Amino acid sequence: MRQGVAQVRRTYERTNVSSRSRSKTRLSRSLGVALTPKAARILEKRPYAPGEHGRTKRKADSDYAVRLREKQRLRAQYGIREKQLRIAFNEARRTQGLTGENLVELLEMRLDALVLRAGFARTTAQARQFVVHRHILVDGKIVDRPSFRVKPGQLVHVKARSEGSEPFQVAAAGGHADVLAKTPAYLEVELDKLQARLVRRPKRAEVPVTCDVQLVVEYYAAR
C-alpha cells in the first residue's frame, strides 16, 4: 500500500513539473519573451503565440492590451505577483528620476534576481527556490525572502554546507553560461567561490530584461 502511494506521489510530482514547464512555455510564446531555456529553444522554432490562431493576427491590439502585455512581460520575467509589482511601482514613482527605469532597477536588486544574474541558478524559479530553501546568504546571514532588497556593497554567497551539492557545483563550473546573459557590470562575481557583490545600483540599460517600461508606467497611471 505504501509503495503504491509513493508511486502515485512520484507520478503526481513528475506531472506537476511537466505541467509547469508547459505552462511557462505557453506563457513565453504568448508574451514573446523566453522565461526558461526550454522556452527559448521553442520560441526559435515557433516564434508566435500558442493556439490555432497563433500564426495569424486577426485585429490590432488596443492601447490597453499593448500596455497590459508589457506589464505582464515584466512580471513574468521576475516571477512576481501583481501586488509585488504594484508596490515596486509605487516606490519607483516616489523615487527621483524616471519611474520606469527606477522600477526595473528596484526589481533587479531583489535577491532572487541577483542570484540568477550571478549565475548561481539557471532560471528565476530555481533562484527563488535556492533562497527559500535557505541556501543563500547576504553578508554571512541567511536570507530566505526572494524579495529581499540587496544594497550596494553587500555580498551574496552560497552557504558553505550547500556548496558541495550538485546544482551549485554545476553553477560554480559555469554550467549556466550557455543560457544566461553576460554578467552585468553592477555585479562583481567570483563564480568558482559562488559569491557576488552588488557594487552599485543597476542602470536600466544594463539589465537583461525585455520590456518597454514606459508602457508599464502608462498602464498603472491609467488605473
Descriptive notes:
- This protein is α+β, with helices and mostly antiparallel strands and 223 residues long.
- It is 49% helix and 8% strand.
- The protein is built from nine helices and five strands.
- A five-stranded antiparallel beta sheet has the order 2-1-3-5-4.
- Helix 5 crosses helix 9 and helix 6 packs across helix 7.
- It is globular, with a radius of gyration of 19 Å.
- The N and C termini lie far apart (55 Å).
- 29% of the residues are buried.
Features:
223 residues; alpha+beta; five-stranded antiparallel sheet; 5 strands; globular; disordered N terminus
The major pleated sheet works out as: 5 strands, antiparallel
Helix share, percent: 40-55%
Which H/E pattern describes the elements?
Answer: HHHHHHHEEEHEEH
How widely separated are the two ends? 55 Å
Q: What count of helical segments does DSSP give?
A: 9
Mean pLDDT: 85
Report strand order across the widest sheet: 2-1-3-5-4
Low-confidence parts, pLDDT < 50 over ≥5 residues? 1-19
Number of strands: 5
Large-scale geometry: globular
Strand content: 5-15%
Category from helices, strands and their pairing: alpha+beta
From the alpha-carbon coordinates, what is the Rg to the nearest angstrom?
19 Å
